[in-house]
Write a structure and sequence with these properties.
Shape: elongated
CATH architecture: Up-down Bundle
Order of helices and strands: HHHHHHH
Mean pLDDT: 95
Strand content: under 5%
Radius of gyration: 14 Å
Structural class: mainly alpha
CATH class: Mainly Alpha
Low-confidence stretches: none
Number of domains: 1
Distance between the termini: 9 Å
Number of helices: 7
Largest sheet: none
Number of strands: 0
CATH topology: Four Helix Bundle (Hemerythrin (Met), subunit A)
CATH superfamily: HPT domain
């Protein structure tokens, strides 16, 4: 991985050394997983379920997005979606608009950075 790629990931608060440990120091595998993240459906599934007032599906999608975000080291996205996940886990859809906006913003930033790698 180039220094420019590492710098881009640092903008997302990725602790590259820590994350790479999870991937057995395999940078190629990590990059492959990053690109799989882009094609994943968890974010879209969460938004759709939220808009359809389906708390069960919203929770499942948010929980998945939280887990993948944490494993890939996207700590801002992880933190933002963690709060929403707990609301959904409690069986509520009472998520403040600004919280959902923060998740969307963090997700978009992650996608933009990954697409630039």
């Amino acid at each position: 991985m180039t220094e420019d790629q590492k710098t881009a990931l640092n903008r997302l608060s990725v602790d590259f050394d820590e994350v790479l440990e999870r991937f057995a120091d395999n940078e190629e595998l990590y990059l492959k997983c990053l690109h799989k993240f882009v094609s994943g459906n968890s974010f879209d599934d969460m938004v759709r379920a939220f808009e359809e007032s389906n708390v069960t599906d919203a929770f499942e999608a948010a929980h998945s997005l939280k887990g993948v975000s944490g494993n890939l080291g996207f700590m801002r996205l992880y933190s933002d979606v963690k709060e929403i996940t707990e609301v959904f886990r409690a069986g509520s859809l009472d998520v403040p608009v600004e919280d959902m906006s923060e998740v969307k913003e963090a997700y978009s930033e992650v996608i933009d950075v990954i697409n630039s790698l």
